[in-house]
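Recall that a protein's primary structure is simply its ordered list of amino acids. Everything else, from secondary elements to tertiary packing, is in principle encoded there. The following example makes that idea concrete.
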Amino acid sequence: MENRAMNESPWQRVLRRDPNAPFLYSVRTTGVYCRPDCPSRRPREANVDFHADAAAAEAAGFRPCRRCRPNEPTLRERQGGVVTKACRAIEEAPEAPPALAELAGAAGMSKFHFLRTFKAIAGMTPKAYALAHRAARVRRNLPSAKNVTEAVYASGFGSSSRFYEDAAATLGMKPATFRAHGRGARIRVVVTECTLGTVLVAATEKGLCAVAFGDDGHELTRQLRERFNAATFAPSDPKFDALVAGVVAQIDDPAGRRDLPLDIRGTAFQERVWQALRDIAPGTTQTYGEVAARVGMPRGARAVARACATNELAVVVPCHRVVAANGSLAGYRWGLERKRNLLARERKV
């Protein structure tokens, strides 16, 4: 779809009512401006002008259409605001996340409508989002805590028994095993710049153990050191420099296939998902449900979404090629704009 849009003129996108077209159009004979997907009857092309946004259209003397309301947020934008607010409520809950009925009531929706909207925007249910957020808190707290119990309470669990009930889903392994991550490992790490911004690349003697995008190299390094708190960090060497160059080349040309050594650490299910992601052809996408079916769990779309969210090897394990059931980009831990950019690069090739 993105390739098609790139090859079309603005008028062609108006004719097919493209909801993703990044412009508005105005009609000189009516003095009105509209969204490209406005349901109104299409005008003659000779009477149409194009504008970057509502401010530009109104500066040119046009007034907004009463049907598509181009000067107001789109339905998708309004839904995104609702989901963002719900995510904040889940994140700020002291222990148990708000119930579905409470979240739906705050959004002014029925439970069914809210759940469907949340899944379409976030790519997972509120419960799955709460689990993923709690997993992130536990992962942050475990390496630096004096013991597991301290990390449990710091992460918002009201009791250690509740934590151990969810430990497998939260961490993918026993807490003691997680705390020992990196013990005996020798890790080389570098933070550099690429066409998608700042990127951290880290590798053990076995292979790549982290590829992460961010805006702050120091923060990326801090997170890596917390994750591998028991490891020894070593300086770069020619072999590692060549590996970093391969990663940057993969980012710049994600459609190319490179045989990069990996040191993947996860549960058996996570590793099955990550391997399935590597099997998705460049320039194509699959839904969470399709990936779930491929790994033998036809009803495991949510589990696949969690495995994608815990992928530590951006681009190398291409979780950016997984989309929501309705075709939307859903989530991406390193930012939707990077995901959109990567897919666009692959589809050009």
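The two ends are 14 Å apart (CA to CA). Residues 268-348 form a domain with the Arc Repressor Mutant, subunit A fold (CATH 1.10.10.10).
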